[in-house]
Design a protein that fits this description.
The protein is α/β, with parallel strands linked by helices. The chain folds into three domains: 166 residues, Rossmann fold (3-Layer(aba) Sandwich); 165 residues, TPP-binding domain (Rossmann fold, 3-Layer(aba) Sandwich); 198 residues, Thiamin diphosphate (ThDP)-binding fold, Pyr/PP domains (Rossmann fold), CATH 3.40.50. The chain contains 22 helices and 20 strands. The strands form four sheets. It has a six-stranded parallel beta sheet, sandwiched between helices. Strands 11-10-9-12-13-14 form a six-stranded parallel beta sheet, sandwiched between helices. Strands 16-15-17-18-20-19 form a six-stranded parallel beta sheet, sandwiched between helices. Helix 15 links the parallel strand 15 and strand 16. The longest helix has 15 residues.
Length: 549
């Protein structure tokens, strides 16, 4: 006989889970007891949003569901930010949520939540386990669903009286491999379409990639001399140093790449859902009008034709299709088209100078030139991220952790998860002053569990992205976007980490070296000029342009 918490944890062991993230709650005490002697590492976090973001980042890195435990009511709703990231980023994730006792339901009891109603649109599947005997069945299904088709988050609610009761039930094995054969006919259909193209463009993105798949994409591009673009925050799908890499179709994309997308006559989309961000809010390509020939490859058949009408739609795992395409060869009349795509990318990489003694573009180019290729870069959301997207070169798969959902606060929890998973690699979190303060309490988690990311805080004293939009629409009327910030370096030291403040660009390399040598969580605060706003315009310039218009 085992209590429900032990049955649950034994099932996690059977699934191959080695690390979970949690904020403890009395609603799942039995699960915490089950974890005690399990050998599974429990990363105890400070807020459920940070815990869910760490689990999501773990899922991105491993390709296996990240697991998070949160308590009922406010614990579950706090976690919703991370669950939303997992949904939009197609990341496998399993969320265990405490629930009130079964006999108290439908009375709005203390912290009672209808999880099916609350998370029905945020998760792939939401269920509540009423019978302890069915725990292995529900958990097995949860891991299957989280990883199948288009991966995503699954939520299991666990009534506390069910979890603390006892039963004699067998465990179920981990999900069996699901080999998918990509047919020769499917590959031939793709290559036949490419043979007739004059201006082809490959767009790679989505989840389900590995280093092997990235290598196969490179080989496929070389065999056909094809320009490869990637989607928003999927820049590590191909070595950015490669001469066939053309840049990213993301927020603040290279205008020349956007024009290339508009001019392409054949677009091969591999793995990406291909939506509004890649098409600049559907301004480059409009799904309501005829456009270029789109060849769409995605693991979930429900995504094919959901937005853009494909001339060819293939439902298959990204990695399998790319591996098969790498075995093909072809040629076309697009050599100049491909060469110009790379030339446009390299021109876009040349830094545009920003005002102030500390220049974010120089910080990023220094990191690109000096970090090891396997260094992991994380970020959340904000104008600072545009500098990273534009000037950093990702050279290996698995080195970029960022939310395609555009969630602020993600970068730091993700860096903690990355450092725990890769203790021998350099992990750098790029964050804005507003972004970092959404989850900086997880510095306590990092120190407690030995994570040692280096956080670079781009401090311009405001919510920069919102201020940018504000100046464009209501120039000279700032409202609600200024920030009063702490001494970030002192805050890091208070948590037991290493902290530095950089006020002169020349001091950054030495500060970074000291942070690396410290061997603990480090924060480097960059004091930026308040007029610095975007990679191409100052605040003053944005305001002047809006007033002139």
């Amino acid at each position: 006989m085992r209590h429900g918490g032990q049955i649950l944890v034994d099932q996690l062991v059977a699934q191959g889970v080695t690390r979970v993230f949690s904020v403890p709650g009395e609603s799942f005490l039995a699960a915490l007891d089950g974890l005690h002697d399990s050998g599974i590492q429990n990363i105890v976090c400070r807020q459920e949003g940070g815990a869910a973001m760490m689990a999501e980042a773990h899922g991105k890195m491993t390709g296996k569901p990240g697991v998070v435990f949160v308590t009922r009511g406010p614990g579950a709703t706090n976690a919703s930010a991370g669950i939303h990231i997992a949904k939009q980023d197609s990341t496998p994730m399993v969320v265990f949520v405490g629930q009130i006792a079964r006999a108290h339901r439908d009375r709005e009891a203390f912290q009672e939540v209808d999880y099916r109603a609350v998370f029905g649109t945020l998760a792939k599947w939401v269920a509540e386990v009423d019978q302890i005997e069915r725990l292995p069945e529900y958990i097995s299904r949860a891991f299957h669903v989280a990883n199948s088709g288009r991966p995503g988050p699954v939520i299991l609610a666990l009534p506390e009286d069910m979890l603390s009761s006892h039963a004699d039930v067998p465990d179920l094995p981990a999900p069996a491999p699901q080999p998918v054969a990509v047919s020769p006919a499917q590959i031939t259909a793709i290559t036949n379409a490419l043979q007739t193209a004059q201006r082809p463009l490959v767009v790679a993105g989505g989840s389900g990639w590995t280093q092997s798949a990235s290598d196969a994409l490179t080989k496929f591009a070389e065999n056909w001399n094809l320009p490869i673009a990637v989607t928003f925050r999927r820049q590590d799908r191909m070595n950015n140093d490669h001469p066939l890499y053309a840049g990213d179709l993301g927020v603040g994309m290279n205008p020349k790449l956007g024009q290339r997308l508009a001019k392409a006559d054949t677009i091969l989309v591999i793995g990406s859902r291909f939506g509004d961000i890649a098409t600049d809010g559907y301004q480059i390509l409009d799904p309501t009008r005829p456009g270029p020939r789109i060849l769409h490859i995605h693991p979930d058949p429900d995504e094919l034709g959901r937005v853009f009408h494909p001339a060819l739609a293939i439902a298959a795992p990204t990695a399998d299709v790319v591996q098969a395409l790498a075995q093909t060869k072809g040629a076309g009349t697009w050599a100049d088209w491909t060469a110009q795509a790379r030339s446009d990318y390299e021109a876009w990489q040349k830094p545009a100078e920003t005002p102030g003694a500390v220049k974010l573009e120089q910080v990023i180019t220094w990191l690109a030139a000096n970090l090891a290729p396997d260094s992991i870069i994380t970020n959340g959301a904000g104008n600072y991220a545009a500098f990273l997207h534009r000037y950093y070169r990702f050279r290996q798969f698995g080195t970029q952790l960022a939310p395609t959902s555009g969630s602020m606060g993600y970068g730091f929890p993700a860096s903690v998860a990355a450092s725990l998973q890769n203790p021998d690699k350099t992990v750098v979190c790029m964050a804005g002053d507003g972004c970092f303060q959404m989850t900086c309490n997880e510095m306590s988690t990092a120190v407690q569990h030995g994570a040692k990311p280096i956080v670079i805080v781009a401090n311009n004293g405001r919510y920069g992205t919102i201020r940018m939009h504000q100046e464009r629409h209501y120039p000279g009327r700032p409202s609600g976007t200024d920030l009063a910030n702490p001494d970030f370096a002192a805050l890091a030291k208070a948590y037991g980490g290493h902290g530095e403040t950089v006020t002169d660009q020349a001091d950054f390399p030495a500060a970074f070296a000291r942070a690396q040598a410290s061997g603990v969580l480090s924060v480097i605060e960059l004091k930026l000029d308040p007029d610095m706003l975007t990679t191409g315009q100052t605040l003053t310039q944005v305001r002047a342009a809006a007033l002139k218009a």
